Amino acid sequence: MSTTAKIPFHHHSLPEHAKELYFHPPYITLAHLFHAPQQWGIASRMLNNYQFQYVVEGAAEYRIEEQTYVTRRGDLIYHSPSQVHEVHTIPGEKYICISILFDFGNSGYPVEQMLGTDRYLGNFAGHDIEKKLTQLITHYHQPGLAHHTQCQALMMNILAELAGIKMEQETKTEGQHKIKTKMVLIRNYIEGHYNENIQHRDLEALSGLSRNYIIIRFRHVFGITPFEYLTRVRIERAKELAIQTDLSIGEIANAVGYADVHTFGRMFKNKMGTSFSQFCSSMVT
Fold this sequence. Notes:
Elements: H1 16-21, E1 27-35, E2 41-45, E3 50-64, E4 67-72, E5 75-79, E6 85-89, E7 95-103, H2 111-115, E8 120-123, H3 128-140, H4 145-170, H5 174-192, H6 200-207, H7 211-222, H8 226-244, H9 249-255, H10 261-272, H11 276-282
Antiparallel strand pairs: 1-7, 2-6, 3-4, 3-5, 3-6, 3-7, 5-8
């Protein structure tokens, strides 16, 4: 009977780059959903673990060393071992949070390198990260190795996703920030001049960008083209005037930038699915 020799695995046999990239899995020492009583708080303290604190509902004031954060629904913050911190509820506000304590033993996992030194990680209400945090505490309270492994997998997945978000934010170039600023400038111009005969050349002169590039970038930032946004602004303003004033339909059409009441009427019905006169009639009590 032939036998297959087992080759022992030695960490020192790994190439140098692998030694730097791989660490022990996280030890999760606490994961729970906490509903704080009124006037609850934790006095200044230090922990030996990392901590995630995610606001499920309400608000609380979190102080980490010299920085104070007023955290609300969807906010996620973290702090590192040996960082002085305290937390207090806000009078008149409920506070429900997900609290997770974890560490990597002595392996020196580079959490700060991944997440940065800013303890506020962002707002994740309705985000996939919120779902994973909830799943993690569910698995944590179930017995068995499978649930234990799921907890560790979810924690690493959350860390990886947060690191990816941070990396994406950091790699945005100065040019991209300038382009977004110009798109906001165009949006604000439309909001301030919706009742004028705005043309593409006006937006080109304002931004210094070409017509096609403006359309592409504006859609990327706001989800619609500049002139679709102009139509939306005109419709909302026309509805406000119908509700708040006694102006005729022709006067309202003129006030939002249409010299021809019939063109205004066709536009409104096409976008809203009902005529403007029917909308006005529905306002009568």
